[in-house]
Amino acid sequence: MHAFTTPLVTKSDGTKFGKSEGGAVWLDPEMTSPYAFYQFWFNTDDRDIGRYLRYFSFRSHEELLALEKEIAERPAARAGQRTLAAELTALVHGAEVADDVIAASHALFGRGALDSLMPATLQAALAEAGLHRVHGELPRSPRCFATRGWWPASTRPGGRSPRGARTSTTSGWPTPRRRCPPALCCTGGSWCCGGASARSPA
Fold this sequence. Notes:
The protein has helices spanning about 35-40, 45-55, 60-75, 80-95, 95-110, 120-130, 150-155, and strands at about 130-135, 185, 190-195, 195-200. β2 and β3 (about 190-195) form a beta hairpin. It has a four-stranded antiparallel beta sheet. It is built from seven helices and four strands. Helices cover about 40% and strands about 5% of the residues. The chain is globular. The chain has about 200 residues and is α+β, with helices and mostly antiparallel strands. InterPro entries: aa-tRNA-synth_Ic (IPR002305), Tyr-tRNA-ligase_bac-type (IPR024088). Belongs to the class-I aminoacyl-tRNA synthetase family.
């Protein structure tokens, strides 16, 4: 009989890494969406990323040394977190899903388009941002904006724009041809998602 063991994985503060310490992450997409899974690893503490790359990554020793050098030179770029999150998401959920959640992450922070995202990924990303149901007429209410005409005027073609795409209809919503149901728009620092809205994390 043979056994394979690993050291107890702990975080930089000495607490255990795992569900008993809260912040559980699951391989089952029904329990942790691929987007949330990616974000879990992307949010790894800078003090832990080197160790976690050695525990969980399949990159060579030379690649890890080069990556650690890049991390030391440009810590704000979070190259280690991006590498670990992308690699593990692809390993668990597949390369196509990993590419999609990375694109969703970029779009939510204003660095990508929405129309190529899988609807399930987009909805999971918005759920992570925190959705709130609002009445469909709220954006047109004078209680919400300075005048009743502000919303229609600001969302004419070329006015307000969904993240990564200019509005192209007189109502200000993306055209029906876009593959990101429900329709999305961005006003100020908030997302509008049909009858729901969520504050943008960017």
